[in-house]
User: What shape does this take?
Amino acid sequence: MLQQNNKSSFHQKPICSLLYCLGKAGLKVENMEDPLLNDQRELSSVVGQNNNKKSNNTNDKNNNNNIEKECTNINNKNNHMNIPSQLRFTVVNAAIGAFCFGYNTASIAGAELYLDKDAVFWKSSVASKNAGFLTDWKKGILVSCILLSGCVGALLASPVYNKIGSRGAHTLQNIFFIFGPIIMAFANSFWMLVAARIFTGFGVGINSSICNLYISEISPTFCRGQLGGYGAFSVTAGILFAYIFSSIVGAQIDSPGVWRIMLGIGSIPAIFQVMLSTTCCGLLSESPRWLKSKDRFDDARKSLKALGLEQSTHHLLQQEQNLQQPPHTRRDTSICNHKSRSALIAGIGINVLQQVCGINVVIYFGPQILKNAGFQDVASIALSAGVSIAQLGAILVLMRLVDRVGRKPLAMIGIAMMIIGLAIIAVAFYILAHDATTSIFAPWLAVLGMLLFRIAFSLSLGPMPYIVTSELFTNAFRSKGVAISWAANWISNFGVTLSFPILKDLFASIAGNSPELGSVCLFGIYILMSIFAAVFIWKYVPETAGKDFEDSDS
Assistant: This one.
């Protein structure tokens, strides 16, 4: 039975808590330091040796299990209060790229409402009947082209990361984030605009893989979910800013050409990140894990110190011998490995299911959906911004709970709420189909459905790829697995976004030329996909909360 230590300062560091617990159990632990990588295999080995010595005493075995649990609880209690400020600043700096990711993908939602009316850009004074200059297929291409290049960027992220590290990858992504929006702002034809969106998409794809991989690799186990949530938070913040900026600029500038400002402003956050990383190099330290994989142990120590994690250096030294093992003893990094294959199925699954539930239809076409529900242009953008604010609040709640409650329980609760939100949106359009002229509350019912859906998404399928994907894979296969999983995310994102206007019209024609009934059918499909997502996650995605990266290697 463990006794409480009256000297509370003794427990301020996790290793002190660990040594205290093991010392009371009569176990001798030598040369242990508090590692960045939290190598629980050493603890398991020590406890296992004690069990072998007392194999005839089942009470001792049970006692050791209780000791492990109590040590973990003490460590978690103390560690949650002790995230180094240097580490937080580094994560925030890295998340600026995720902000660019969110803004550049969502800014087209507001811009297309004005691009549709810009006769100067289209060099014509005659728009298509009741539809402006942008036809459905042009809208689909304009919105989804960035997603296809995002897939290519995600695949390139793995060799880029392995070759030049996370700092080099962040620099590369900012080249795309700076020049892509500028070219969009000065585009003089539709296809030039599409080409600029594709160029920007390479940066979006690289960031989707590198940002979350980097944050997860520099984060200790006890707060990895919380810090990993910064990526999802920043993407949503970028989407929110796109809506707010589009609403303000659209209301203040009475010109169809205002869409150029909406798209071009996306280069400013990337310029800011470059300036911040250049003037304050410590705010974007190289990943110690990447440096360690290159046998650059001195640089890894410096990186750990810059992150406020210098206590891990002793453990890093202990790993030098393991890293210098002969090639035949190194772990299999190919996809043929059973563990890699199982993790890849789970990683691809959660990334694809994030998209097929319809979230980016609600994000990219959100203003258009609300406009179809009866709101004006500026009002539809402003309401979409309000929904994004609520979604940000939900992500903050998730960041507080994800390491304590776990990934899967939050996902199950969130998906159930998502299904209800999608059903409300479908009901709103059903009412509009039968009572479009007299129904007052149906448009607001659509707003309620979008609000509930996006809040629930932020507790479930929204942050899961950002937090869980990098946690599924072994150290040797992680960069490849994350890149492939996010490539699948972008492919499915591309397919869903491109197909939405087409499927909406198809279902509308089947339902007697009723766009509202077509939307009802489409959101019904998204409900079925959300149900399937819940089943898949429950059965195939492991719980990763509180587990070390090194656990995935064992």
About this structure: The chain has a mean pLDDT of 76.
